[in-house]
Amino acid sequence: MEFNAEQIAAYLQGQVEGDPKAVVTTFAKIEEGVPGAITFLSDIHYEHYLYDTKASVVLVNKDFQPSKPVTATLIRVEDARACVARLLTLYQQTMSQLRVGIHPQACVAETAQIGKNVYVGPHAYVGENVVIGDGTQLYAGVVVEERATVGENCILYPNVSVYHDCHVGNRVILHSGCCIGSDGFGFAPIEGGYEKIPQIGNAIVEDDVEIGANSCVDRAVMGSTYVRKGVKLDNLVQIAHNCDIGENTVMSAQVGVAGSTKIGQWCMFGGQVGVAGHIEIADRTRSGAQAGIAGKVRKSDQVIIGSPAMDARQFARCSAVFKNLPELWKDVNDLKRAFKNK
């Protein structure tokens, strides 16, 4: 890879400030910049690194105004973080060679329909009446069970499992250990133990979804569990049976969503958020890490935190009171003693 600042600016529709012929051959974090590297600045907390970085080119937002002289060449763009993502994607595409073909140690059923330019790795299993779309990559140990479908240009990393009758859309990325369509947690208490409730539905993952390592999307008891278009789930996320996760919602690690919950579009959940079952959460709800959402969230565009989750500003006020509880408790006891001695 070798480009100059002028070429990069043209690709990103940005403006060069400095040497347009500055050459870039690699990427680096701004605090670890080296000559020939391109980096970016989007968080103002990292601004102090800009004035010392050895990187040749730095992407910055158009409205950024440096407080000191900058030796690196700047490229001003609308969104530095989004633009570096575009460059990294381009770099990955140029460096990665898609694999094609069925490995001799793979097991593919005769009734399976395999598209063009598909890769099926060693020890992968593709079951009866499975459909695999064009350009999809199934790495080592992937299992796609009977009557399941996987769309075009997907990547299923090692040891991903797609259970029977489940559907995965186009351009989906499933990371190692991810499981689509495992049984939901359904058990009926009976004398002496629990009776398993059969989970006869399926799970549907729509287009442009990415799901992290060791995350699970359970199949429905009846009907379908949905992960809608554009959803991004981190590692170790649990989506229970009959949930419906709205378009472009994102969830950080260890989020757990209980059964039959409907989550709106463009929601954001921090790490370890827990969501109760059989509730609805409005569009563009943003939930802080470790929040416990126990009831419906009816108002959209809301930031909530705490357990039980509440409006972030109210939580901040409650936290201020909580920190002062020992002093308040002492004051109350002093008043009680004073009143008792009168």
Give structural notes.
This protein is an alpha/beta fold and about 350 residues long. It has 2 domains: about 5-95, MurE/MurF, N-terminal domain (Udp-n-acetylmuramoylalanyl-d-glutamate--2,6- Diaminopimelate Ligase, Chain: A, domain 1), CATH 3.40.1390.10; about 100-315, UDP N-Acetylglucosamine Acyltransferase, domain 1 (3 Solenoid). It contains 5 helices and 40 strands. Strands 8-11-14-17-20-25-28-31-34-37-39-40 form a 12-stranded mixed β-sheet. A 10-stranded parallel β-sheet has the order 9-12-15-18-21-26-29-32-35-38, with no helix packed on it. It has a 9-stranded parallel β-sheet with strand order 10-13-16-19-24-27-30-33-36, with no helix packed on it. The mean pLDDT is about 95. InterPro entries: Hexapep, Hexapep_transf_CS, LpxD, Trimer_LpxA-like_sf, UDP_GlcNAc_AcTrfase_non-rep.
Strand order in the sheet with the most strands:
8-11-14-17-20-25-28-31-34-37-39-40
Number of strands: 40
Tell me what portion of residues adopts beta-strand conformation. Answer: 25-35%
Topology-level CATH name of the largest domain = UDP N-Acetylglucosamine Acyltransferase, domain 1
Number of helices: 5
CATH class label of the largest domain: Mainly Beta
Helical proportion, percent range: 10-25%
CATH H-tier superfamily of the largest domain: Hexapeptide repeat proteins
Question: What is the CATH architecture assignment of the largest domain?
Answer: 3 Solenoid
Number of domains: 2
What spatial form do the alpha-carbon principal axes imply? flat
Structural class of the secondary structure composition? Answer: alpha/beta
